[in-house]
Amino acid sequence: NVFIGIYWQYDEEEDQDCFIVPYAIPENVREIFLHWTKATGPCQARANIQKLWKGEEYYLQIDSHMRFRKGWDTQLKQWLALCSSPHPILTSYPVGYEQPDLVPSYSNPAFLVPAEFSLLDGMLRLNGRLLASNKET
Questions:
Q1: What's the CA gap between 62 and 69, in Å, rounded?
Q2: Alpha-carbon distance 124 to 21, whole Å?
């Protein structure tokens, strides 16, 4: 069984077309609705969406701009099996892609690195970088 949690940051009037088609299995969809003007950033959104978890065996958190490579779910389960912790966490910065769905074939892990402090708000900006090589286990 797959359960989906959606944290909608939207405009009720402008985004009506996002809600026209009903969910195939509505009882497996959990939602939080927030007007986009009240959004306080990705960290708060991620914290709120975690509240929708109801003890499922697996929990995957993604953003709306992510793309998936064939076999991604099997790969993640294999990586989890390699972890000795009873509650392992896999995390990564997602690789880039070209619109609409051209996902690169490389599998080097990505990570965040400091880029600069913004002149507008003084906030630290980050960039994604790939590790030089991927050592398969």
A1: 14
A2: 39
Q: Which residues pair with 32 in a beta bridge?
A: 7
DSSP string, 100-135: TTB--S----EEEEEEEE-TTT-PEEEEEEE-S---
Rounded (5°) CA angle 46-52-56:
110
Take residue 124 and report the two structure tokens written for it: 């630290």
For 45-66, what is the mean pLDDT? Answer: 90
Rounded distance between C-alpha atoms, residue 107 and residue 83, angstroms: 19
Its pTM surpasses 0.85:
no
Q: What tokens does 39 get?
A: 């959004």
